[in-house]
Design brief:
By secondary structure, the chain is α+β, with helices and mostly antiparallel strands. The protein is built from 5 helices and 6 strands, in the order αβββααββαβα. Strands 1, 2, 3, 4, 5 and 6 form a 6-stranded antiparallel beta sheet that branches. A hairpin with a 5-residue loop joins strand 2 and strand 3.
């Protein structure tokens, strides 16, 4: 575990300390999943998948001197930039793409495709564009819609599954306890975290209980 987590930390540190570590704007940040999930079709066939978000404005960064000046003059620069872009109708957009490897081809590469410190080369696993993300509004209440958001890697929709990616499995195990500690036992009942479809749990009382079912 120590060796794996150390490798993951080193991998992330190299990204953070590169030019990509000081983004010009949130609107110019590329997003991609560190973890490997699975896609399951109607026939029950599994494929491994990585998700990617490519900014319409391209990936741009600040140089160190620029970052120092902005941090001193306006520490809230990035949130302000994103908010102003949305409020003026210059909606930030990202192309949504996936890289897919059939389960039968898992061992066809000279690296472990489930290793979170490895990037799937696009010349070997092409990026397939399947959609677009547009941010067209700002939150109404920052606390309830941003501060109380809980991201749980174990929460997936039908058609998406979990792989044996060891980092993902570790997160699935620990994130639930993290959210209980941060937001309370009924964190899934908070409006921002509540699923669209009606569900029941076995929590009768407690903090943040919004509905009695």
């Amino acid at each position: 575990d120590f060796v794996y987590l150390h490798s993951e930390a080193t991998h992330m540190a190299m990204w953070a300390m590169s030019d990509r570590g000081i983004p010009r704007s949130y609107r110019m940040m590329q997003g991609f999943g560190v973890n490997t999930f699975t896609l399951i079709n109607a026939q029950g066939q599994r494929s491994f998948v990585k998700f990617h978000w490519v900014p319409e404005l391209g990936v741009h960064s600040l140089v160190w001197d620029e970052a120092l000046k902005l941090a001193g003059q306006d520490p809230d620069f990035h949130r302000k930039d994103l908010n102003e872009a949305i409020m003026t109708g210059a909606y930030p957009k990202w192309t949504f793409g996936i890289q897919v490897i059939p389960e039968s081809a898992q061992h066809d590469f000279d690296f472990d495709i489930l290793d979170a410190t490895k990037i799937w080369p696009e010349e070997l696993v092409p990026l397939q564009v399947i959609g677009e993300l547009v941010l067209n509004r700002v939150v109404d209440e920052y606390f309830t819609e941003t501060e109380q958001v809980a991201f749980c890697t174990a929460h997936v929709v039908p058609g998406i599954g979990l792989s044996d990616d060891p980092l993902l499995q570790g997160r699935n195990f620990s994130y639930f306890d993290t959210q209980i500690t941060r937001l309370g036992i009924n964190w899934e009942e908070l409006p921002i975290n509540r699923p669209v479809c009606p569900v029941l749990n076995h929590q009768r009382d407690g903090a943040s209980r919004h509905r009695i079912t």
